Amino acid sequence: VIDRPTCLARDLADPLARFRPLFHHPPDLIYLEGNSLGMMPKAVPARLDALVSREWADGLIRSWNDAGWWDMPLRIGAKIARLIGAHPDEVAATDSTSVNLFKLLAAATQLRPGRRVILTDPDNFPTDLYIADGLVNLLPGYELRLRPVTEIAASLDETIAVVTLSHVDYKTAAIHDMPAITRAAHAAGALALWDLSHSAGAVSVGLAAAGADLAVGCGYKYLNGGPGAPAYLYVRRDHQEKIRAPISGWWGHAEPFAFLPRYAPAPGIARMLCGTQSPLAMAALDTALDLWADVDLALLDVKRAALTDLFITLVERDCPDLRLASPRDPAARASHVSFRHEDGYAVMQALRAAGVIGDFRSPDLLRFGFTPLYIGYVDVFDAATRLALVMREEGYRRAEFRRPARVT
Amino acid sequence: VIDRPTCLARDLADPLARFRPLFHHPPDLIYLEGNSLGMMPKAVPARLDALVSREWADGLIRSWNDAGWWDMPLRIGAKIARLIGAHPDEVAATDSTSVNLFKLLAAATQLRPGRRVILTDPDNFPTDLYIADGLVNLLPGYELRLRPVTEIAASLDETIAVVTLSHVDYKTAAIHDMPAITRAAHAAGALALWDLSHSAGAVSVGLAAAGADLAVGCGYKYLNGGPGAPAYLYVRRDHQEKIRAPISGWWGHAEPFAFLPRYAPAPGIARMLCGTQSPLAMAALDTALDLWADVDLALLDVKRAALTDLFITLVERDCPDLRLASPRDPAARASHVSFRHEDGYAVMQALRAAGVIGDFRSPDLLRFGFTPLYIGYVDVFDAATRLALVMREEGYRRAEFRRPARVT
To answer: What is the pLDDT of residues A138-186, one digit of tens each?
Structure first.
């Protein structure tokens, strides 16, 4: 039998439980949307206040050196590297995921001249599809080819420059097989580019072990870097000296302060930097990443599987109208769980009114994110209990929860 | 005779003087580098603390709507529009200047198919040259052509897709003739793209009056939006429905929350948005821009000319070893003043030790920025006095101010 006391006992035995109080939890709220925007680490406000009221206000331009602003993208990149199984000199924090994806896709086409196809999955995260579409629109003769992820390996041939996929499906939470697909890409002479936005910080990621060529990811989901936090990019060491940054700004220049008229790429991953980054945004991410230094990453996989298993068990026991849309095998499932319901929009509105925040994705998907770092077993139990109440009383049928004509 | 009391009298009569106390001035420091990083408006820390400690911490994902985070790029863009003589729906705050320049140059080549040359000035801001170089490297058959700004008009022909120039030369502060060069570009069937980073907020800019097609600019210099503040881009109304964003991310989608598999551009300037922006960085810029709502922009030109004239007069009177590198005509000169000295690096180091911050640009250029919004006449007088002392006592020859092998 699963009840609240057994969940409480599991929290007490959880080796990751000590991270929960390091985040700000609003009272009477269960937050299951860390897969979209992570909670705020309590250390952030003081760090930002120091940056603004001391480093900017008093240090002014000198803080680019004196306060270490200039070095943030690579210093923070090295911290992220540990979370994604990369070497510290293979990652930079910079720009947005979309911009980074554009940079790496464009660079990939130049690393594989003569191959003119970008291969991806039609269920890839939409902005990843849009970015690839924008690039092939810009490059004459290039094509974006869409194949279901199960057919990607069989679709590889000598026309493919790069395969780009999300490590985790943003709708279902299915984990794609990074090592196998990367191997298949390499066997066909193509590069493999992974979007880690929905996996890093919740699922163990082994870029180096898989031999992945390129990757991008997002700072504001499971990394808890704050709204619109800087994203990151990864370039495998042996590609770094061959890669040409397509958006070649001064931050990627070998001598940025020499103000030379000709572009010359910086050595290593720094060449993928572009324009001036926001130390404010960087500092929030940096502070959030400091929490990760103490995290045993193997525990993430264990706890993620346990939290999501618990939620699925409780929802399937108490909410027969909800149909699981995520893989049932926890090894194949990342850190969120999705259920389908034809009135999904209204259900999520009603659940939010009951103090549980998840999200809704058209047309019928309810998503619940379980961040191993700050969500506990009692949170899962309470959220499932409130969801069951909403479903049983059909509170979601009230007019106030009805879907508007256009959702934004 | 120019002395401190006459300068004090001018401050007292200055209609812009009321803005000075709205910025944080570190004690015993005269800050003449607002052309690189503007000072901190005193209202910023409270705004950021509210954003972090309330909107992020408690509002969490809901704040994208409830706190207006989502709308920031266009709402802030509309505030910038007033400063650059654009319509409110022609500007968006987003990304970095370098990324925005890439986006608009790429879009310009698509607006002028068949024309394969980007024309610019070899003295354009280096990162602008690097970005254009990166784009032509990506697009087969394209060329970046460099001509001195005095020869730009004569270099226009039917091969030119777009002329891209900085409105103000970052070294000399020379203002380029936006209306005349834009007219010449149009007469040749080319587009004109202006970088306003060194003019907006210090020099009146009339994009619409000049008929400029495209523009980019920076939020952290004269706009005082904080280190690494979001940049902005401008697209003239009649180009907006024809333009295709080359980096086409979900923020520029017609229905970003429908998560449709195919890209469809948003109407208007919104289509030039790309990935998720940082509300933190946006909020600092937004707060800084609120100060501008009350500024009579015509006064900027008057005061900028007066401050820079005063500085030139004092330096030429008291520092005969410094040679003016900026235009003498204040109508041709933006808001910074440059002098040359063979020991320029050491002079600037010594001057900084004396409490005056300007900057140095290789090989021999001293730059002093005069931000009309927070620099007064007494500041100019005191800065010139300290500079004269440094020069007269040759304090800059001390070993501690010697230039290191590599300056960063």
So the answer is: 999 999 999 999 999 999 999 999 999 999 999 999 999 999 999 999 9
Q: Which of residues 259-318 of B touch A (CB under 8 A)?
A: 259-263, 274-282, 284
Whether residues A263 and B26 touch (CB distance < 8 A) is answered with no
Do B230 and A278 make contact, defined as CB atoms within 8 angstroms?
yes
- All residue ranges of chain B with pLDDT < 70 are 405-408
Catalytic residue among A95, A128, A195, A343: A195
- Is the ipTM reported for this complex over the cut 0.90? yes
**CA pair distance B230, B333, nearest whole angstrom:** 26
Cβ within 8 Å, pair B24-A57: yes
pLDDT in tens, B201-230: 999 999 999 999 999 999 999 999 999 999
Q: B65–A408: do the CB atoms touch at under 8 Å?
A: yes
**Distance of residue A1 Cα from the nearest chain B Cα, in angstroms:** 34
Q: Check CB contact under 8 Å for B258 and A362.
A: yes
pLDDT digits (tens, 9 = 90+) for B1-32: 899 999 999 999 999 999 999 999 999 999 99
Q: What is the mean pLDDT of chain B?
A: 96
CB burial readout B343-365, b (16+ within 10 A) else e = bbbbbbbbbbebebbbbbbeebb
| A63 has a chain B CB within 8 A of its CB | yes
Q: Which of B126, B259, B284 minimises the CB distance to A259? A: B126
116-135 in chain B: CB under 8 A from chain A: 122, 126-127, 129-131, 133-135
**Closest by CA position to B272, among listed B54, B73, B113, B139:** B73
B residues 18-47 near A, CB within 8 Å?
24, 26, 29, 31, 33, 36-37, 39-40, 44-45
